[in-house]
Amino acid sequence: MRQYLQCGRFGFNLSQRPLVMGILNVTPDSFSDGGRYQSLAFAFERAEQMIRDGADIIDIGGESTRPGSPSVPVQEELDRVMPVIYALRELGHALSIDTCKPEVMREAIIAGADMINDINAFRAPGAIEAVADSDCGLCIMHMQGTPQDMQAQPAYQDVVGEVSAFLRERVEALLAAGVMRDRVTIDPGFGFGKSVEHNVALLRSISQMQRDLGLPVLAGLSRKSMIGALTGRSVEQRLAGSLGAALAAVAQGARIVRVHDVAETVDALKVWNAASCEN
Ligand code: 9MG
Question: What is the Cα–Cα distance from 38 to 42, expressed in whole angstroms?
């Protein structure tokens, strides 16, 4: 499996320890921050804190991806994320932009984004072209349906096989456009058109998926409804469950975990890493 990730200005060695991607939502209706970090000053402070806490990558999102969330117009998303990219790019840390929109991808890359995280797997017309000629990292995520309808009735014959086949097809589409393999990560898309059983099956299959596709897996489980279903906890009370999920993902071989609680995740991973590696 590829152990290096080219990510714009940065090159990450994935063989030593899992990377932590900190979530920076800049939406008024963000997943669990309630829009508190909407203002630039808050976003900046939050990003600085995540960096101090040990985040390797900051993932900036200007459109909520919660089930049922409406899509926002391009200009609105640009207005939310671009000032944050400009403010954060000098911090010397890798910046990922969570977007499905080719226009936002292009502007973000020009402004210095190091990675594009697309929950729509670069399926929008023009998305592949927007990223192909850059050197930014790319996260290809699986989603059944759209954020508006994905949790209505998720259905699969063979969730692991279907998600893997989808990711393989999207990887090939990017490679065919000239993208180098060392820029690509794959993500089963926990919670994106999946029941709890689907999510658990995918969590258990990370190592197989990584082996079959030969690409690093990024796992986003933090505070998701699956954690709520397994623990009976509200979104504010899912820290312990989220840490358990992050450790389960890296024990399966995930190379990047996308999380809200960076300090706690970094500590948990330090202990896990000490116990599982000889370095
Ligand atoms: C934006 N976003 C929300 N959840 C996510 C997940 O699980 N993976 C990725 N790549 N992005 C996500």
Answer: 7
